[in-house]
Specification:
Helix 1 crosses helix 4 (69-84), helix 2 (23-38) crosses helix 3 and helix 2 runs antiparallel to helix 4 (69-84). The protein starts with a helix and ends with a helix. Helix content is 65%, strand content 0%. The protein has a single domain (3-84), classed as Up-down Bundle (Acyl-CoA Binding Protein), CATH 1.20.80. It is mostly helical. It is flat, with a radius of gyration of 13 Å.
């Protein structure tokens, strides 16, 4: 199975985990997914001091800047497999 097929399977698997991951893990999944599908983050970071969620998402995704789509997909797959047990 190629990396894209494994990635698609990991996305499906992530939606049926028996336990909800921690917020930190959810941010990892989010940022790896975005880096895999869209590449480096673009635009400005949220400036609203009360917009904690979007700021955290932006920062998590921004931390992956320069990572290739394939690297991000592989890390996403490994993280989901770890969560599955």
């Amino acid at each position: 199975m190629d990396i894209k097929a494994q990635f698609e399977q990991a996305i499906a698997d992530s939606k049926s985990l028996t336990e909800k991951p921690s917020n930190e893990t959810l941010l990892q999944l989010y940022s790896l997914y975005k880096q895999s599908t869209e590449g480096d983050v673009s635009g400005e970071a949220p400036t609203n001091p009360f917009d904690f969620v979007n700021k955290a998402k932006y920062e998590a995704w921004s931390a992956l800047k320069g990572k290739t789509s394939e690297e991000s997909m592989q890390q996403y797959i490994e993280l989901v497999n770890k969560l599955k047990g």
